[in-house]
Structures are given as structure tokens and as C-alpha cells.
Design a protein that fits this description.
It comes from Capsaspora owczarzaki (strain ATCC 30864). It contains four helices and no strands. It has about 120 residues and is an all-alpha fold. The protein folds into two domains: about 80 residues; about 40 residues. The longest helix has about 70 residues. The chain is rod-shaped, with a radius of gyration of 39 Å.
Amino acid sequence: MADEHDENEAGAAENAQPAQAAHHDAGKADMDKVTDFAEEKEMAQSTDLNQTMKLLTEQHKRDVEERAVRDRALAAVSVKAEDVQLIVTELEVSTQKAEQTLREQNGDLAAALAVLAN
């Protein structure tokens, strides 16, 4: 009878091992699905990030080009040195700011003073 009991336990242990292995394989398959989903999501985010970076780079290039065109146009505007000095003295701004504002206002002293005063 003890032998029968030992044989039943041994048989049960052998039957439990395949069931545990099947359960383990199912858990592994589930984990693989989750991992695959996470990897696909990361790849999609990476693609979105690359597209965003490309758009930002293009926008930056356009901004630099527009600024260069604007700077060339402003450089073509002539300003009087005495107008720059008047603005610097009266409004206590830098020479660079006074000159830039005068150029932006096409050399118009009254308009430049109004812009800087506000």
C-alpha cells in the first residue's frame, strides 16, 4: 500500500510538471506580446520624434533665412548719427538698440522715439 501511495505521488508529480511547463509557456507568450507591443510603441514614438525633429530643423532654417533677409533690409536703411545719439542720451538705451529701432522705423526719429518710449 505504501508502494501504491508512492507511485500515485510520483505520477501526480510527473503530471504536474507538464502542467506547470504549459502554464510557464503561456506566461512567457503573454510577456512576449507585452514586450512586442512596448517595442512597437517605442518605434512609433521614435518615428514621430524623427518627424518632429525634421520639422523643427526646417522651421529653424526658414527662421534663420528670414532673419538674414530682414537684417540685410535693415542694414540698407541709413540713419543719422545725431539721431542715434539723441535717442541714447534722452532715453538711456544702448547705441545698438537706438540704431536698430531707427532702422526698423526707416530712419524716422519721431517714430523711433515713440516706439522706445512705450
